[in-house]
From TrEMBL:
Recorded superkingdom: Bacteria
Domain annotation VanZ-like: ranges: 17-107
Keyword Membrane: yes
Transmembrane segments: 38-55, 90-107
NCBIfam families noted in UniProt: vanZ_1 (NF037970)
UniProt entry keywords in alphabetical sequence: Membrane, Transmembrane, Transmembrane helix
Protein name (record): VanZ-like domain-containing protein
Length: 116
């Protein structure tokens, strides 16, 4: 895929996830402990993937941008009456994005070792 496609997908996912993070959560009868943390982790892992492929920034700058987005999401949730901010969610955001870049680094290191 081209960078333009990744940029478009990143923008669409940012819009969709911002909307979902702002929605009122309906509590269901079956609850999975820490499912919201897993969702935050997965979303930010995916955002890191699309961000990395959409723009030619250094990984640390992607992390700054994604960490800032995560902080803004938590701030937004703190201002919505039916939502609440969570440090755990923010940590899951950062760990999700960081996991992508660690995995990318490990894959590159493995490929370099394999080719030499």
């Amino acid at each position: 895929m081209t960078r333009r496609v990744y940029q478009t997908l990143l923008l669409l996912f940012l819009i969709a996830f911002t909307y979902l993070f702002a929605r009122e959560v309906q509590v269901q009868s079956i609850r999975i402990t820490h499912l919201d943390k897993l969702a935050h982790f997965a979303v930010f892992f995916m955002l890191a993937f699309f961000s990395y492929h959409a723009f030619k920034f250094k990984p640390w700058f992607h992390m700054v941008l994604l960490t800032s987005y995560g902080a803004c999401i938590e701030w937004m949730q703190s201002t919505i009456p039916y939502r609440q901010a969570s440090m755990g969610d923010f940590i899951a955001d950062v760990l999700g994005a960081l996991s992508y870049f660690v995995l990318l680094w490990l894959m590159r290191k493995y490929q370099a070792r394999k080719s030499s």
